[in-house]
Specification:
It is a single chain. The mean pLDDT is 95. The chain folds into 2 domains: 5-127 and 269-288, Rossmann fold (3-Layer(aba) Sandwich); 128-266 and 295-328, Dihydrodipicolinate Reductase, domain 2. It has 11 helices and 18 strands. It starts with a strand and ends with a helix. The chain is 35% helix and 24% strand. Strand 2, helix 2 (39-49) and strand 3 (53-55) form a beta-alpha-beta unit. The protein is an alpha/beta fold. The strands form 3 sheets. The protein has a 9-stranded mixed beta sheet, with helices on one face. Strands 3-2-1-4-5-6 form a 6-stranded parallel beta sheet, with helices on both faces. The chain has a 3-stranded mixed beta sheet with strand order 10-9-18, with no helix packed on it.
Length: 353
Protein backbone atom coordinates (compact mmCIF):
# COMPACT_ATOMS: atom_id res chain seq x y z
CA UNK A 1 0.00 0.00 0.00
CA UNK A 2 1.35 3.43 -0.97
CA UNK A 3 2.44 5.70 1.88
CA UNK A 4 0.42 8.79 2.69
CA UNK A 5 2.63 11.67 3.79
CA UNK A 6 1.60 13.89 6.71
CA UNK A 7 2.05 17.44 5.50
CA UNK A 8 2.10 20.85 7.17
CA UNK A 9 2.13 24.49 6.07
CA UNK A 10 4.21 27.14 7.86
CA UNK A 11 3.10 30.55 6.61
CA UNK A 12 -0.56 30.81 5.62
CA UNK A 13 -0.53 33.66 3.11
CA UNK A 14 -0.94 33.46 -0.66
CA UNK A 15 1.85 30.96 -1.24
CA UNK A 16 0.65 28.87 1.69
CA UNK A 17 -2.71 28.60 -0.07
CA UNK A 18 -0.99 27.57 -3.33
CA UNK A 19 0.94 24.80 -1.57
CA UNK A 20 -2.20 23.71 0.29
CA UNK A 21 -4.08 23.39 -3.00
CA UNK A 22 -1.34 21.15 -4.39
CA UNK A 23 -1.30 18.91 -1.32
CA UNK A 24 -5.07 18.49 -1.22
CA UNK A 25 -5.03 17.47 -4.89
CA UNK A 26 -2.27 14.88 -4.42
CA UNK A 27 -3.50 11.49 -3.14
CA UNK A 28 -0.08 10.82 -1.60
CA UNK A 29 -0.31 13.76 0.83
CA UNK A 30 -2.61 14.56 3.73
CA UNK A 31 -2.61 18.18 4.90
CA UNK A 32 -2.84 17.89 8.69
CA UNK A 33 -1.48 21.14 10.17
CA UNK A 34 -1.20 24.85 9.44
CA UNK A 35 0.90 27.42 11.29
CA UNK A 36 1.07 31.21 11.11
CA UNK A 37 2.00 33.85 13.68
CA UNK A 38 -1.33 35.45 12.76
CA UNK A 39 -3.87 33.00 14.10
CA UNK A 40 -6.61 34.39 11.86
CA UNK A 41 -4.54 33.59 8.75
CA UNK A 42 -3.99 30.05 9.98
CA UNK A 43 -7.70 29.62 10.74
CA UNK A 44 -8.73 30.89 7.30
CA UNK A 45 -6.44 28.39 5.61
CA UNK A 46 -7.63 25.65 7.93
CA UNK A 47 -11.27 26.33 7.09
CA UNK A 48 -10.65 26.54 3.35
CA UNK A 49 -8.70 23.28 3.14
CA UNK A 50 -10.21 21.41 6.12
CA UNK A 51 -6.92 21.28 8.01
CA UNK A 52 -7.53 19.74 11.46
CA UNK A 53 -4.77 21.43 13.49
CA UNK A 54 -3.88 25.13 13.75
CA UNK A 55 -0.75 26.57 15.41
CA UNK A 56 0.93 29.93 15.98
CA UNK A 57 4.26 28.34 17.02
CA UNK A 58 6.09 26.25 14.44
CA UNK A 59 8.17 24.44 17.09
CA UNK A 60 4.99 23.27 18.78
CA UNK A 61 3.61 22.07 15.47
CA UNK A 62 6.80 20.20 14.59
CA UNK A 63 6.87 18.57 18.03
CA UNK A 64 3.25 17.40 18.04
CA UNK A 65 2.39 16.48 14.45
CA UNK A 66 5.09 13.98 13.31
CA UNK A 67 5.17 15.59 9.86
CA UNK A 68 6.77 13.95 6.83
CA UNK A 69 6.70 17.03 4.57
CA UNK A 70 6.61 20.73 5.42
CA UNK A 71 6.14 23.73 3.15
CA UNK A 72 7.80 26.87 4.52
CA UNK A 73 5.97 29.68 2.78
CA UNK A 74 6.98 32.50 5.11
CA UNK A 75 8.94 35.60 4.16
CA UNK A 76 12.64 34.94 3.56
CA UNK A 77 13.96 36.55 6.75
CA UNK A 78 12.83 33.65 8.96
CA UNK A 79 12.99 30.79 6.46
CA UNK A 80 16.43 29.54 7.48
CA UNK A 81 15.63 29.14 11.19
CA UNK A 82 12.38 27.30 10.41
CA UNK A 83 14.10 24.99 7.91
CA UNK A 84 16.73 24.11 10.52
CA UNK A 85 14.02 23.39 13.11
CA UNK A 86 12.06 21.21 10.69
CA UNK A 87 15.11 19.14 9.73
CA UNK A 88 16.09 18.65 13.38
CA UNK A 89 12.52 17.62 14.19
CA UNK A 90 12.77 14.73 11.72
CA UNK A 91 10.85 16.15 8.74
CA UNK A 92 12.20 14.36 5.65
CA UNK A 93 10.85 16.60 2.90
CA UNK A 94 11.00 20.41 3.03
CA UNK A 95 9.84 22.84 0.35
CA UNK A 96 10.92 26.42 0.99
CA UNK A 97 9.62 29.28 -1.08
CA UNK A 98 11.94 31.63 -2.93
CA UNK A 99 14.19 33.46 -2.33
CA UNK A 100 15.90 30.69 -0.42
CA UNK A 101 17.01 32.95 2.44
CA UNK A 102 18.20 36.49 3.18
CA UNK A 103 21.93 35.71 2.88
CA UNK A 104 24.30 33.09 1.52
CA UNK A 105 25.34 32.09 5.03
CA UNK A 106 21.74 31.27 5.90
CA UNK A 107 21.44 29.18 2.72
CA UNK A 108 24.57 27.23 3.65
CA UNK A 109 23.21 26.54 7.12
CA UNK A 110 19.92 25.27 5.67
CA UNK A 111 21.72 22.87 3.35
CA UNK A 112 24.20 21.55 5.91
CA UNK A 113 21.57 20.89 8.59
CA UNK A 114 19.20 19.22 6.11
CA UNK A 115 21.99 16.97 4.84
CA UNK A 116 23.07 16.14 8.40
CA UNK A 117 19.54 15.06 9.36
CA UNK A 118 18.60 13.34 6.10
CA UNK A 119 16.00 15.90 5.00
CA UNK A 120 15.40 16.53 1.30
CA UNK A 121 15.41 20.31 0.75
CA UNK A 122 13.64 21.89 -2.23
CA UNK A 123 13.35 25.59 -3.13
CA UNK A 124 10.17 26.61 -4.96
CA UNK A 125 11.51 27.84 -8.28
CA UNK A 126 8.42 26.44 -9.96
CA UNK A 127 9.43 27.86 -13.34
CA UNK A 128 11.50 24.69 -13.66
CA UNK A 129 8.20 22.81 -14.01
CA UNK A 130 6.88 25.03 -16.80
CA UNK A 131 6.79 22.90 -19.98
CA UNK A 132 8.06 25.79 -22.13
CA UNK A 133 11.11 26.29 -19.92
CA UNK A 134 11.92 22.58 -20.03
CA UNK A 135 11.53 22.61 -23.83
CA UNK A 136 13.96 25.55 -24.08
CA UNK A 137 16.43 23.63 -21.92
CA UNK A 138 16.15 20.63 -24.26
CA UNK A 139 16.64 22.76 -27.37
CA UNK A 140 19.75 24.39 -25.92
CA UNK A 141 21.11 20.98 -24.88
CA UNK A 142 20.49 19.63 -28.39
CA UNK A 143 22.46 22.48 -29.99
CA UNK A 144 19.45 23.99 -31.77
CA UNK A 145 20.99 27.48 -31.53
CA UNK A 146 24.64 26.47 -31.43
CA UNK A 147 26.64 27.73 -28.48
CA UNK A 148 24.52 29.88 -26.12
CA UNK A 149 25.87 33.41 -25.88
CA UNK A 150 23.33 35.73 -24.21
CA UNK A 151 20.30 35.60 -21.92
CA UNK A 152 18.40 38.73 -20.89
CA UNK A 153 15.82 39.26 -18.15
CA UNK A 154 14.10 42.47 -17.05
CA UNK A 155 11.97 42.30 -13.91
CA UNK A 156 8.56 43.82 -13.49
CA UNK A 157 8.66 47.27 -11.83
CA UNK A 158 8.99 47.81 -8.09
CA UNK A 159 9.85 44.20 -7.32
CA UNK A 160 13.35 43.87 -5.85
CA UNK A 161 16.23 41.54 -6.69
CA UNK A 162 15.45 38.90 -4.06
CA UNK A 163 11.79 38.81 -5.05
CA UNK A 164 11.80 38.60 -8.87
CA UNK A 165 15.52 38.25 -9.56
CA UNK A 166 15.51 34.82 -7.93
CA UNK A 167 13.08 33.49 -10.57
CA UNK A 168 14.79 35.30 -13.45
CA UNK A 169 18.33 34.18 -12.61
CA UNK A 170 17.27 30.65 -11.72
CA UNK A 171 15.50 30.56 -15.08
CA UNK A 172 18.72 31.45 -16.88
CA UNK A 173 20.53 28.66 -15.10
CA UNK A 174 17.78 26.17 -15.88
CA UNK A 175 17.78 27.03 -19.59
CA UNK A 176 21.55 26.44 -19.67
CA UNK A 177 21.31 23.11 -17.77
CA UNK A 178 22.59 24.62 -14.50
CA UNK A 179 26.16 25.59 -15.32
CA UNK A 180 28.71 26.85 -12.83
CA UNK A 181 29.02 30.62 -12.48
CA UNK A 182 32.45 32.06 -13.29
CA UNK A 183 32.06 35.72 -12.34
CA UNK A 184 29.54 38.50 -11.71
CA UNK A 185 29.67 42.27 -11.95
CA UNK A 186 26.80 44.48 -10.82
CA UNK A 187 25.55 47.89 -9.81
CA UNK A 188 23.01 48.79 -7.14
CA UNK A 189 21.32 52.00 -6.00
CA UNK A 190 19.62 52.65 -2.68
CA UNK A 191 18.54 56.23 -2.00
CA UNK A 192 15.28 55.43 -0.21
CA UNK A 193 14.61 53.34 2.90
CA UNK A 194 13.15 50.49 0.88
CA UNK A 195 12.43 46.97 2.17
CA UNK A 196 10.90 43.86 0.62
CA UNK A 197 9.10 41.41 2.93
CA UNK A 198 11.01 42.96 5.86
CA UNK A 199 14.39 42.43 4.19
CA UNK A 200 16.51 45.40 3.13
CA UNK A 201 15.97 46.11 -0.56
CA UNK A 202 17.69 48.15 -3.27
CA UNK A 203 15.94 50.78 -5.41
CA UNK A 204 17.34 49.42 -8.66
CA UNK A 205 20.07 47.09 -9.82
CA UNK A 206 21.65 45.32 -12.76
CA UNK A 207 23.97 42.37 -13.04
CA UNK A 208 26.15 40.81 -15.72
CA UNK A 209 26.75 37.10 -15.11
CA UNK A 210 29.34 34.95 -16.87
CA UNK A 211 28.40 31.29 -16.88
CA UNK A 212 30.67 28.34 -17.54
CA UNK A 213 31.10 28.09 -21.32
CA UNK A 214 31.09 31.86 -21.72
CA UNK A 215 27.36 32.65 -22.01
CA UNK A 216 26.43 35.99 -20.46
CA UNK A 217 23.28 36.64 -18.47
CA UNK A 218 21.98 40.20 -18.09
CA UNK A 219 19.54 41.00 -15.31
CA UNK A 220 18.00 44.43 -14.78
CA UNK A 221 15.51 45.68 -12.23
CA UNK A 222 13.79 49.09 -12.17
CA UNK A 223 16.23 50.64 -14.62
CA UNK A 224 15.00 53.64 -16.64
CA UNK A 225 13.13 53.23 -19.89
CA UNK A 226 13.29 52.46 -22.73
CA UNK A 227 13.10 48.72 -22.29
CA UNK A 228 14.58 46.48 -24.96
CA UNK A 229 13.14 43.39 -26.54
CA UNK A 230 15.50 40.42 -26.36
CA UNK A 231 15.33 36.69 -26.95
CA UNK A 232 15.09 34.31 -24.00
CA UNK A 233 18.33 32.68 -25.19
CA UNK A 234 20.58 33.75 -28.08
CA UNK A 235 23.30 31.57 -29.53
CA UNK A 236 25.87 31.39 -32.30
CA UNK A 237 23.34 29.75 -34.66
CA UNK A 238 20.01 31.27 -33.67
CA UNK A 239 17.70 32.25 -30.84
CA UNK A 240 14.78 31.01 -28.76
CA UNK A 241 11.80 32.96 -27.50
CA UNK A 242 8.51 32.39 -25.76
CA UNK A 243 5.46 32.17 -27.99
CA UNK A 244 1.80 32.52 -27.18
CA UNK A 245 -0.24 29.93 -25.29
CA UNK A 246 2.81 28.23 -23.81
CA UNK A 247 4.57 27.58 -27.11
CA UNK A 248 8.28 28.04 -27.83
CA UNK A 249 9.66 29.90 -30.85
CA UNK A 250 12.90 28.75 -32.47
CA UNK A 251 14.86 30.65 -35.11
CA UNK A 252 18.09 29.15 -36.40
CA UNK A 253 20.34 29.68 -39.36
CA UNK A 254 19.23 26.42 -40.96
CA UNK A 255 15.62 27.49 -41.49
CA UNK A 256 13.78 30.63 -42.52
CA UNK A 257 11.47 32.37 -40.06
CA UNK A 258 10.40 31.18 -36.65
CA UNK A 259 9.41 27.61 -35.90
CA UNK A 260 6.59 27.20 -33.38
CA UNK A 261 7.09 24.28 -31.00
CA UNK A 262 4.49 22.79 -28.68
CA UNK A 263 6.32 21.68 -25.50
CA UNK A 264 5.78 18.23 -24.11
CA UNK A 265 3.70 18.17 -20.90
CA UNK A 266 5.47 17.89 -17.57
CA UNK A 267 4.92 14.46 -15.95
CA UNK A 268 4.92 15.83 -12.37
CA UNK A 269 4.88 19.02 -10.29
CA UNK A 270 7.44 20.07 -7.67
CA UNK A 271 5.49 18.36 -4.87
CA UNK A 272 5.28 14.97 -6.57
CA UNK A 273 8.92 15.24 -7.61
CA UNK A 274 9.84 15.74 -3.95
CA UNK A 275 7.96 12.55 -3.06
CA UNK A 276 9.66 10.67 -5.90
CA UNK A 277 13.04 11.93 -4.64
CA UNK A 278 12.22 10.90 -1.07
CA UNK A 279 11.22 7.44 -2.30
CA UNK A 280 14.39 7.03 -4.38
CA UNK A 281 12.55 6.93 -7.71
CA UNK A 282 14.69 9.76 -9.13
CA UNK A 283 18.29 10.66 -8.30
CA UNK A 284 17.54 14.30 -7.47
CA UNK A 285 14.88 17.00 -7.52
CA UNK A 286 15.44 19.66 -10.18
CA UNK A 287 15.03 22.43 -7.55
CA UNK A 288 17.24 21.19 -4.74
CA UNK A 289 18.52 23.45 -2.01
CA UNK A 290 21.93 23.37 -3.69
CA UNK A 291 20.42 24.68 -6.94
CA UNK A 292 18.67 27.39 -4.95
CA UNK A 293 21.99 28.27 -3.34
CA UNK A 294 23.61 28.85 -6.75
CA UNK A 295 20.91 31.40 -7.55
CA UNK A 296 21.28 32.99 -4.11
CA UNK A 297 25.05 33.24 -4.64
CA UNK A 298 24.60 35.13 -7.93
CA UNK A 299 22.20 37.64 -6.37
CA UNK A 300 24.51 38.24 -3.43
CA UNK A 301 27.42 38.63 -5.86
CA UNK A 302 25.58 41.48 -7.62
CA UNK A 303 25.52 43.31 -4.28
CA UNK A 304 29.09 42.28 -3.47
CA UNK A 305 30.40 43.67 -6.77
CA UNK A 306 29.43 47.17 -5.68
CA UNK A 307 30.89 46.59 -2.22
CA UNK A 308 34.31 45.54 -3.55
CA UNK A 309 34.06 47.82 -6.60
CA UNK A 310 35.18 44.99 -8.87
CA UNK A 311 34.25 41.78 -10.61
CA UNK A 312 33.32 39.02 -8.15
CA UNK A 313 35.01 35.75 -9.03
CA UNK A 314 33.07 32.75 -7.85
CA UNK A 315 32.75 31.17 -5.39
CA UNK A 316 31.50 34.06 -3.29
CA UNK A 317 33.19 34.11 0.12
CA UNK A 318 30.90 36.63 1.87
CA UNK A 319 28.29 34.87 4.00
CA UNK A 320 26.44 37.99 5.18
CA UNK A 321 24.19 40.00 2.89
CA UNK A 322 26.52 42.42 1.05
CA UNK A 323 23.63 44.89 0.79
CA UNK A 324 23.40 45.01 4.57
CA UNK A 325 27.18 45.39 4.76
CA UNK A 326 27.04 48.27 2.26
CA UNK A 327 24.59 50.06 4.53
CA UNK A 328 26.62 49.32 7.69
CA UNK A 329 29.81 50.52 6.00
CA UNK A 330 28.20 53.82 5.00
CA UNK A 331 28.37 53.31 1.23
CA UNK A 332 24.71 54.29 1.02
CA UNK A 333 23.50 57.46 2.78
CA UNK A 334 22.13 57.27 6.32
CA UNK A 335 18.42 57.45 5.60
CA UNK A 336 16.29 59.18 8.22
CA UNK A 337 12.98 58.74 6.40
CA UNK A 338 10.59 56.05 7.59
CA UNK A 339 11.19 52.62 6.08
CA UNK A 340 8.63 51.35 3.60
CA UNK A 341 8.02 47.80 2.46
CA UNK A 342 7.01 47.19 -1.15
CA UNK A 343 5.01 44.14 -0.04
CA UNK A 344 3.12 45.24 3.06
CA UNK A 345 3.35 48.32 5.31
CA UNK A 346 5.12 48.00 8.63
CA UNK A 347 2.68 47.46 11.55
CA UNK A 348 2.99 51.01 12.84
CA UNK A 349 2.21 52.33 9.34
CA UNK A 350 -0.84 50.07 9.08
CA UNK A 351 -2.11 51.51 12.36
CA UNK A 352 -1.70 55.07 11.05
CA UNK A 353 -3.49 54.31 7.77
Amino acid sequence: MAKTYRTGIIGCGGMGRAHSTAYTQNPATELVAAMDVNVESAKRLSEEFTVPAVYTDYNEMLEKEALDIVSITTWQGVRAEITVAAAKAGVKGIIGEKPMAASLGEADTMISVCEEHGAKLVIGHNGRFNPANTEIRRLVQDGAIGQPTLLHRRSKPNAGLLNIGTHAIDGMRYHLSDPETLWVIGQVSRSTNRWERRTLCEDLCMGLICFEGGARGIYESDLPEPAISAAIVSGTDGQINMGEDGTVLLQNNGASGWQKIQPRPEPRDQYQELIDWMEGKIPEHRSTGRQGRYTMEIMMAIYESLRVKNVVTMPLETSESPLELLIKEGVFPDLTEDPYDIRRPFPEQEKRA
